[in-house]
Every structure is written in structure tokens, then in C-alpha cells.
Design a protein that fits this description.
Length: 240
């Protein structure tokens, strides 16, 4: 159970897909025009992550190594199709809003990365919690970005008017450039927290934006950026 809790913490904070690993930028920048859109996009991705991780973990000793990527994509696509049909049937307005970004979950590097780097190497229960943690971290990030954009661009959060009547909405925040501005702002806040912690002598090495790309010397075996390295290296005899 401690390992499952660690996977949740890892996905939400240590390796948050958006603010730390900088993955899944396409839906992050495109659908976060409101907090509600970001929340539902994140939750949809979380469900796909958890289910695909569970299924891939169950089949990890059956799927041949040489066809693992196509097999993973078929499994992920099956769950994405299921979620797409459910949204179209029960939440048609949200389905219309998210549009093409729902089927594009299939090629979201977060999902394929977790399948390759974690679910294909670990038991079912930790893999499920890894998917939930990463998915929830993604949902939190999208909701935060959407909330800031909606607040500054329309004066609302989740459709409720927050700002005073005299507030003049800054419409650029609900346009495409606003996504970059808000992502940069929130990432800068994260970096400031890291710098402040380091000045106080705290170990902030687990918080950072992006990756050093030094996979040979990296101790993060569950890092999404390692998604093709480990298995390929084993096949080529580069590692034990």
C-alpha cells in the first residue's frame, strides 16, 4: 500500500506531467479555456491511464517485446474509444467542446510513457495507482490553468462570476496566447518555490521543470521520458 501511495504522490507532485515533465502540451494549451474543460479533460485522461495501465500490466508477460508499442496503442485506443462514446452519449455538450482532443488521447505521450516505463514492468495494483496519480496530476494542472484563464479572461470560475462588476476581462487569456502566458506563470511559481526551498537548505531535487535527459545516470526508473530507453537497451545488450 505504501508503494501505491508513493505512486499517487509521484504523479501529483514529484513528476507532475504538466509542470514538471512538460508532457501533454497539446491538450494543456488547447482545451484549458475554462476550468471545467480542463477538469473533464484531465479526468478523462486519468480514467484511460488507470485502465490501460491495469490491462497492460496484466498482459506484460504475454505481449512480445518486439510488438509491445503497437499492442499498447491498441489497448489505449480501445479505452479512449469507450470514453469517447460515453461522453458523446451522456455529456454531449462537453463532448462537442473537447472535440478532436478526446480521440487524440490515444497519442498522448503521458499515457504511452507510463505504459512503457511502468505498467509493462510492475504488478497491476501499483500500475493502477500510477495511472491514477499521473492522471490526477494532469487534471489538477489543467484545472489550475483553465481556472486562471477563465478568471482573467471572463471573470468566472466554473461558470460562477467571481470578479466585481467593474472588472474588465482580459480577453487574450481565453485566446491561444493566454495558455502560454498562464503555463509560463505557474511554472515560474513552481521554480520560485524550488529556489526558495534550496536557499533554506531543503532537498528540492525532486521538483523541476523538464528533464536532464541523462537517462544513463538518472535514478528515476519510472520517469516517462525513459519510455523507450530501458527495453531497447536490454534488447541491444547495453544493460543487464
Amino acid at each position: 500500500m505504501n508503494k501505491c501511495i508513493e505512486r499517487l504522490y509521484n504523479g501529483i507532485l514529484k513528476e507532475n506531467p504538466t509542470f514538471v515533465l512538460m508532457l501533454g502540451m497539446c491538450p494543456t494549451l488547447a482545451v484549458t479555456t475554462s476550468a471545467l474543460n480542463g477538469l473533464f479533460m484531465g479526468l478523462t485522461t486519468m480514467v484511460v491511464l488507470a485502465l490501460s495501465n491495469a490491462f497492460i500490466s496484466l498482459l506484460r508477460n504475454i505481449i512480445p517485446a518486439k510488438v509491445r508499442i503497437p499492442a499498447f496503442i491498441v489497448i489505449i485506443a480501445s479505452f479512449v474509444t469507450m470514453m469517447e462514446l460515453l461522453l458523446e452519449g451522456f455529456l454531449p455538450s462537453l463532448y462537442d467542446t473537447l472535440g478532436i482532443y478526446i480521440p487524440l488521447i490515444v497519442v498522448n505521450c503521458i499515457i504511452l510513457g507510463r505504459a512503457e516505463s511502468y505498467a509493462s514492468k510492475n504488478p497491476v495494483l501499483p500500475s493502477v495507482f500510477d495511472g491514477i496519480g499521473m492522471g490526477f496530476g494532469f487534471a489538477v494542472a489543467l484545472t489550475m490553468i483553465g481556472a486562471v484563464r477563465e478568471l482573467l479572461g471572463a471573470g468566472d470560475i466554473f461558470g460562477f462570476h467571481i470578479m466585481p462588476d467593474g472588472f474588465v476581462p482580459v480577453s487574450i487569456f481565453i485566446m491561444a496566447p493566454g495558455a502560454f502566458f498562464v503555463l509560463a506563470l505557474l511554472t515560474a511559481i513552481q521554480n520560485q518555490v524550488k529556489i526558495s526551498g534550496e536557499k533554506k537548505g531543503k532537498d528540492m531535487s525532486k521538483i523541476g521543470s523538464g528533464c536532464s535527459e541523462d537517462c544513463m545516470n538518472c535514478s528515476e526508473s519510472g520517469c516517462s521520458s525513459r519510455k523507450f530507453y530501458d527495453a531497447d537497451a536490454k534488447e541491444n545488450g547495453e544493460v543487464e
